Amino acid sequence: MATRVRTASGTLKSALHHTHPRPTLRAFGRSSVRPTSSSSSTSKPRQPTKVARSAPIGLLVGGSVLASAIAITQLTGSDDSHHHIEEQSQNAPIKDDRDPSLPRYRLSTIRQHDAHSPEPWVTSSDKVYNITSWVSAHPGGDIILRAAGKSIDPYWEIFSIHKQPHVREILDQYLIGYIDVADLGPDGRPKMEEVEDPFEGDPKRDERLVTLTAKPRNAETPTGEVAREFITERGVFYVRNHMWVPQVDERTADDTHVLTVELPDGEERRYTLRELKTKFPSHRVTAVLQCSGNRRSDMTRQVGHTNGLQWGVGAISNAEWEGVRLADVLADAGLKVASYPSLTQTSPPPSDPQIPDPNTLHIHFHGLEAYSASIPLPKALSPSEDVLLAYGMNGGPLPRDHGFPLRAIVPGTVAARSVKWLSKIRVADEEATSQWQRRDYKCFGPNEGANPDWERAVAIQEMPVTSAVTGVWVGSDVKRVPWMGEKRLLATEEKGEGKKNEGEVALQGYAYSGGGRAIARVDISLDGGNTWDQAELVDDCAGGKCKGSKAWAWTRWRYCGTLPSPPTTRTISSASPSSSAPIQALEDGAEAQNGTEKKIGEKDACTELIVKATDTSYNSQPETHAGIYNVRGNLATAWHRLRVCPKCLQNSTCNSNKNIWSDGAVVYGCGFSREDEKKEER
Where is the composition biased (Polar residues) (predicted)? Predict the structure, then answer.
């Protein structure tokens, strides 16, 4: 039976007291630290250097490292040699040549600045950081306080994402001093601490996934598998985790996993997973999930540095989801609104002040591992938006990496709002206050630099139109195209000569637009944008195969054509080369003077392949990333570009690793790179 519990509306429940499924922790012995006199132990804390509110952006995911309820202890030595070294270190003076302008703090003082202190501190190596002003912007919220008063290093050793240089740069902005030499060992560091690896219980992953970070696991679908099939195989569906994967017993989850729904007045309703499955009608939706950072590496390469995982074209996948409508659950929980919500218009003020205007409310999703995000309430309540509480994927239960036992599915919206391992839903009068809603998954102007105004920027919801090439076959490799079959459109021999047409090219890829907008057209250029043609759109939804009210799935496309003949000369002009001009290399890298012609070696001449998509609202992709550049590298949706060079056509065996684009046993061609180079290098 679902149960009701009355709580005080708006009561803050500290993350310190939440219990999240996590690995069982072993206890380590604690060695005492004998304080010695130090005039700096009671020094007034030096405040951290004042930084912009947006400074913590570099720790968007990194800060969530501290979201574990991990007990950290200091290891004790047991052998005589250890005690001998310790005695020597206590007796021998340690030279302190660190910045004299910063105070020194004893470990006993640092421990006082724990989770209950108004000024929490952490240490790293021999440095001390005051994270007071950072806690509210931390990706894991208050959970960072679990490390307060102790060293942050053991956590960062486990979470591989912290190896990125910009993460350390952000932490250094909160430096207030150093650990007193009396508490340092011969190596100039305090005694090493250990924490148990919370990732030990993570599921095994398909070896085909392209891993960007191991802890937490972030991995994209290999290019050869992206859009190979309309429905992405569960094993190669891209993985985007901010922390470890919660451990929920699959055998008992139906009865032990509980979803809590909190209404605006503070009243709560709880449902077991079994109740959700049996009490409400089941629905299926065929929908894409796409990370906001998909193709971020394109933006980095073409414009400049971006913060975040450098995804290629594989941070997107398509699946059939099964679950119950969120609107049905909210209605059963007792949610009442003044009028039926509209996604485009604001409702008139309600006549009953006790019944809220739905257009002023938001749905907060909370995961077991402390992640949270929100969407506008009208999105959740509209039957045509198909928002699900999903427990199934591609005909089976949710895999652990993808939210088992329960997750939100918000079609047409950035995947960051489809919260996994769902444990609580809250209806509130503001957006979620988490890092992932307020200080991540936003975009900025190209001029805003490393410290953008997070408060002014709007959180990403619906995704813009995008497309990408995921397969290329050139020359004799065209025969490898799996979908060509008997309907092959290209001639393999020239009439009367019996010679293979080495200029053949076959492409495939995906196009997608958020908000349920279908793809109207995919344009292809084989010569850098000088001429265009249209790709064939694959009708995967024919016969009602796609579930849902709108076009939530991607559109796969195919194209067959002939590459342009390689030029033999190139005129060098004083004007900057057009962004649509074919890429052509000067022989031996020689430079030419303006207004002169330079002979081009045929083997070095290249051409540029371009794909761009237009949706049914006639939204189209921007030509370059320059105009949409943002420091976070989000929504990298410019035309997708590849280079193809004649040397590929001359090497039908494609036996040179340098010239092969392949994934596993599938070879897509050779002599070209996955994406075009930076515009400045043309």
Answer: 1-12
Please tell us whether the domain made up of 249-297+318-438 is placed in CATH 3.90.420.10: yes
Contact status, residue 192 vs residue 77, Cβ threshold 8 Å: no
Choose among 672, 298, 237, 651: nearest CA to 472. Answer: 672
Q: Could you tell me which of 431, 377, 421, 384 has the C-alpha nearest to residue 400?
A: 421
Q: What pLDDT score was predicted for residue 402?
A: 99
Residues assigned a catalytic role = 138, 162, 240, 291, 441
Over the Cα atoms of the chain, what is R_g? 29
CATH 3.10.120.10 domain range(s) in the chain? 18-194
Residues in the chain: 682
Q: Give the H/E segment covering residue 18.
A: none
* CATH 3.40.50.300 holds for 18-194: no
What distance in Å separates the CA atoms of residue 610 and residue 564, rounded to the nearest whole number? 13
| 375: number of Cβ within 10 Å | 26
Place of tokens 């303006």: 594
What does pLDDT average to in each consecutive run of 10 residues of the chain (682 residues)?
45 38 38 35 48 37 38 36 46 80 96 92 94 69 73 76 71 93 89 78 96 95 93 98 95 98 97 99 99 96 93 97 98 85 54 78 95 97 97 98 99 99 98 92 93 93 97 81 61 41 84 99 96 98 96 98 72 38 29 48 69 99 97 96 66 41 37 40 34
Residues of the chain with CATH 2.60.40.650: 466-681
CA distance 426 to 118: 28
Measured distance CA(329)–CA(335) in Å, rounded: 9
- pTM, rounded to two decimals: 0.74
SS3 329: helix
At the topology level, CATH places domain 466-681 in Immunoglobulin-like (2.60.40)
Query: Looking at residue 320, what is its pLDDT?
Result: 99
DSSP-based three-state secondary structure for 393: strand
**Tell me, what DSSP letter sits at residue 390?**
E
**Dist. CA 411–CA 284, nearest whole Å:** 12
Distance between CA atoms of 526 and 562, rounded to whole angstroms?
Answer: 8
Tell me the helix, strand and coil percentages in the chain, rounded to 5. Answer: 20, 25, 55
Please state, in angstroms and rounded to a whole number, the distance separating the CA atoms of residues 292 and 463.
8
Q: In which element (H, E) is residue 580 found? A: none
Q: Where in the chain is the domain with CATH 3.90.420.10?
A: 249-297+318-438
Q: Which DSSP state fits 352?
A: S
Strand 533-534 to 597-599 pairing: unpaired
Neighbouring C-beta atoms of residue 522, cutoff 10 Å: 24
Residue 54, phi-psi category: left (phi > 0), alpha (psi -120 to 50), beta (remainder): alpha
Neighbour count for residue 25 (Cβ, 10 Å): 15
